[in-house]
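Protein entry
_____________
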Amino acid sequence: MRYQISGKQIDIGNALQTHVKTELGEVVQKYAERPTDANVIFSKSAHEYACEATVHLSTGLTASAKAKETEIYAAFDSCCAKMEKQLRRYKRRLKDHHKDRVEPVELFGASSYILASAEGAQDPEPESLQPIIVAEMETNIPSLSVGEAVMQMELAGAPVLVFRNEGKDGVNVVYRREDGNIGWIDP
């Protein structure tokens, strides 16, 4: 498994990198078959350290976890524990998902835009109806079944997931509703 361990505005030492590789490697090997790479980012905000970990699995699914603590090692350990809990919860489904698929999840390219918010604007009336684009990026849209999309959304900790429905060849959306249930949009 490839590791990318970095820090935002802080230096990450060799001891922490070794700790991350051994602990995260044990957790991921225990619950997932053939992980491909892991991305771990440390940052500091005031007195707290934050750790954000993302693991890409060979099946095409992605698991992520975040944690904040006053110590950097404690932040990673909390993040690793959250990752382990997610993977343990979905272990059977991850293995079943892998058996049904002969090839990894197919990804399609798409554009992703970040629009400027209206907060803090002095003028309540916009000059035009065209929003201001702050950033433009490329993103991938996976080709999944509805069940796999719900699992991917929960593993990633995302509130919404756009995916291409394998059964109908159309773009669908799953999202977490305010009442805690999962919503599915199938146009």
